[in-house]
User: What shape does this take?
Amino acid sequence: MDRDEVWQAIDTERLSLAELLDDLSPQEWETPSLCAEWRVRDVAAHLTLSQTGVLPALVAVVRACGNVNRMIRDTACHQARRPTAEYAPLLRAMAGSRRTAPGVTHLEPLIDVLVHGQDITVPLGRQRAMPAKASAAAAARVWPNLWPFRAERRLRGFTFAATDDDWTAGAGPRVEGPIGAILLLLTGRRAALSRLSGPGVEALTARLSPARTR
Assistant: This one.
């Protein structure tokens, strides 16, 4: 996808996600998302911060003592104090804009809206399509050890192949499935394993299983 196609996909995803947010019940807003320790409302709040300017971002990093992960969590939790009715209009207001947060390319907002859309909908049992072409562009950005996912290093030893696109990466036993599911796996969502198949799935599942406790 060229840059214009990526931005068109981002606009489409933001607008459709805004429609979904308009339809959530109070209970759904408080449901745990696929993001550890984040509710649906926290994920939605995070997405509304995709165009944070340089100065607010610097202030947030300083407050988080330079810890970027902490900064991301803190800003999302602070934004999540706003009424949930505000999130959909904030997403809609981004449509047509090409602004990004500091230090990211045009592909990071695509990754965010695709993956976080699933973080919201999967736990709610709602269906949300992940367009193959856009998901492949996002996966291509994530795979070569994009922080914080480190997918190529973390998932070394397997070949990943999309069944609905020509995207492939890695070397080793084959793991295949929809490119949307592969993108979720590359970004650390173990829930995607149920949608994948191939000779490498059993070993991959064992590798990614939580450590056993006594």
